[in-house]
Amino acid sequence: MNKEPMIYAVAGMVFGFVLGYMAANMGDHAAPRPAPPPGAVAAGGLDTAPSPAARRDAPPSPPDPNELKALESLATREKKNVQARVELGNLLMDHAQYGDAIRWYREALALAPADNDVRVDLGACLVSSGKPEEALAEFDRALANNPGHKKALYNKGIALMQSGKPKEAVAIWEDLIKRYPDDPQLRGLREQIEQVRAARSSS
Asked: Domains (ranges, CATH) in the chain?
């Protein structure tokens, strides 16, 4: 059996779990969920998340034009306003406009390079844009500053899965579980790890 389709099928299951995990609003901004590869079948995640299939069936709605215009105007007027750029990134990310969100997150990080949460959101946008290698670089920068950053660890695993490196992804997630064994947001992660392993052993 060709290994690549199996890896991507399992990635789809894990992406389904991410829908639930990231919906738990860790930190100030819950990162949107990287979309599964075409044809992948996603499995449900945490109880707090809507159905992954329902999210994918409905096209993303555009952001509120008035809110977008107001934030863009503020960012244009105030060149050093980090929060306006972060809010623009968040707004565009939430509406799956990843390219534009990446731009604003990069501008925010140019002004506040130590903001790990923004860096992780940038990485999540890069994963969703099909750029896992660039995403990994951002997650590694965040983890260099904060080795226990939960969203960075989890999303690094997603980027590794998208890069076709399930073994490395599993190692990252196992480290995450060891760091936070009682975290309710991580329930179900062990099952996802076992599914990845089972898929690798049968391929």
From this structure: 3-202 (1.25.40.10)
